[in-house]
Write a structure and sequence with these properties.
Two copies of one chain form a homodimer.
Chain A: E1 2-8, E2 11-16, E3 28-36, H1 42-45, E4 55-56, E5 61-68, E6 80-83, H2 93-96, E7 126-129, H3 132-135, E8 137-139, H4 145-153, H5 157-167, E9 175-179, H6 183-194, E10 199-203, H7 207-216, E11 220-222, H8 226-236, E12 242-247, H9 252-261, E13 262-270, H10 282-288, E14 291-294, H11 299-311, E15 323-326, H12 330-338, E16 345-348
Chain lengths: 349, 349
């Protein structure tokens, strides 16, 4: 089959690799229907994160189950499934606590499992899915092309935006600020709205993203950054920062913007993969009771609730995909996101 | 009157200073009945925090109102009152949000108010209290000597321990670890118990403090630190860290101990004044969804609830005072805490 590998900065290649097959009784093999490029894929693409060897790419996909191992009970061949961006067993203490990303037996797409056997990446034609029962979520019926986009967001960005909002303790009536106008930040707007936020302010300088944010439920846009942006926010919110700030980028600057945008006693919910190791300014946090919550989003835990709302049309996060390409053009899918020509690229094998 | 000043490391002096008087219509003058030395007073005492000039000391006291300004409505001469460790107006947006420590008009004991007029410290015979209505809490009747100890903890350590527990999201059934066996950590045990914690593990190497922690509701003591302490904790808790960790020290080492003791998805509630600027390890926090909440405790907000339980004997935090001295021996009150001969020193003018 064909699968995507990264060889170095801006060096994305589609290559012939071994077809996946069932190797553990808890495995499934899934034919990928749609995959996408993640903002975090851009860290190795841009050379921010160093590679020691070529690596299979893709950790967000949906597809159809082709085969299952002897012990798989919850999905069957023919099922349309969503694959969260981390594998998880569903039964260990951390999974039971809802933190599936800390699963004791879990694994990562494009990396070896605990027995050293490669788990395929999602940006390919097929994938071996380890821990299929804990990891995959089956969708009733066969979704159409538009619905596929919505379901695909549940493998990462919608669940991650939701984690930012949950971690930021968004409540009915909350004032919310969102730092990051990428797909996760935009899904954060959807999440904040469904959790009852009264005011949702998006920091964005990009007209198309501003518009989508407003469609998703943002009430205000601020196109300034730094101290000017914070001054505008506090002006909008009657003199104090936001109750809840969603940090959806992961740089030192974006984290500082988020902290500065939070009112004393508020929560910053952060989900941006820390790139370049932002240090948290403990003195500022302490003095102002700024609480910092979040991390790598346990989207598997949120998937059942959010799935229902995607299926019944209550939320439409699939609109974050503004570029759709065949797998053969996967390199362009990366380039378009890197150059901010696309919010998020969808790839169809 | 006589009041305590610090002139430099380990240089505590009792000096004659001006008697306080009403200077603003929102002032009260309080005769101090009991004051105490705070763990954070030890930072300048030890030279960890530099002084540029001699400074009045003490931010925890209880006493009797002598005089009030024309606009003071909630306390009257003769009232026995508790003074929280930060002054607050009670009416600004931050006070209404319960974060009285971020009060827009608030001030600090031993420092100038917004008009440049000194607010006395608490370790003296009398104190001018600015913003008396927002700051002071009156207690019904005249407490006896034992009750004074309990009430005095509400000016800081009991409310601060409670803030650690609230920030750490202690819930009925939570597993809790407490880092720091000083007065705040011990009060954190009381707070965790009253919030319904099922298991409360105290890190302590000090026999008298271990015993008091058990009396207050701790279920287990760990006398190891670092990786050994964390290993013992996870062994006690069935293989994972604590749901909630109370960080009640403020050093880089204690914060790391707290983070390492937290389970994925748990909360570290921290209230130790950061000394030496611990940086938070963002990569570890992110990967494990360790949430860090807390800061300078808004004890004024918690005071009414906790006051009732001290008055009716439900909780007895006054037991943290294991040394009681006249004001004339205030230097010894510091030395005993510095040398860990006392958990907490009470001073009677």
């Amino acid at each position: 089959m064909r699968a995507t590998l990264i060889h170095g900065p801006r060096d994305i290649r589609l290559e012939d690799v071994d077809d996946p097959r069932i190797q553990q009784p808890t495995d499934a093999v899934v034919r990928v229907v749609a995959a996408c490029v993640c903002g975090s894929d851009l860290w190795p693409y841009r050379g921010v994160r160093r590679l020691t060897a070529p690596r299979r790419m893709g950790h967000e996909f949906v597809g159809v189950v082709e085969q299952v191992g002897a012990e798989v009970a919850t999905v069957r061949p023919g099922d349309f499934v969503i694959a969260p961006f981390v594998l998880s067993c569903g039964t260990c203490a951390h999974c039971r606590n809802g933190i599936t990303t800390s699963c004791e037996r879990g694994g990562a797409w494009g990396a070896p499992d605990r027995d050293g056997l490669l788990i395929d990446g999602g940006q390919g034609e097929y994938a071996r899915v380890a821990l299929a029962d804990g990891t995959l979520v089956a969708v009733p019926g066969t979704p159409d092309s538009a619905m596929v986009r919505g379901l695909l967001t549940l493998s990462d960005v919608m669940g991650t935006g939701h984690h930012a909002a949950v971690s930021a303790h968004v409540r009915p009536g909350s004032t919310v600020a969102v730092v990051g106008d990428g797909a996760v930040g935009l899904c954060g707007v959807i999440a904040a709205k469904r959790l009852g936020a009264q005011r949702i302010v998006m920091f964005s300088r990009h007209v198309a993203r501003q518009k989508l944010a407003m469609d998703f439920g943002a009430t205000d846009i601020i196109d300034q950054r730094g101290a000017d942006g914070v001054a505008r926010l506090t002006e909008l919110l009657g003199g104090i920062g936001a109750d809840a700030v969603l940090e959806c980028v992961g740089t030192k600057e974006s984290m500082q913007q988020a902290i500065d945008s939070n009112r004393p006693g508020g929560y910053v919910g952060y989900v941006g993969v820390p790139a370049g190791g932002p240090e948290l300014p403990i003195g500022q946090l302490f003095s102002n009771n700024i609480n910092v919550a979040g991390g790598v989003a346990p989207v598997r835990t949120y998937l059942p609730d959010l799935l229902g709302e995607v299926l019944d049309g209550t939320i439409d996060p699939g609109r974050v995909f503004d570029l759709e390409l065949p797998l053969s053009e996967v390199a362009e899918a990366y380039a378009a996101m890197d150059e901010r020509r696309a919010i998020k690229s969808l790839i169809r094998p």
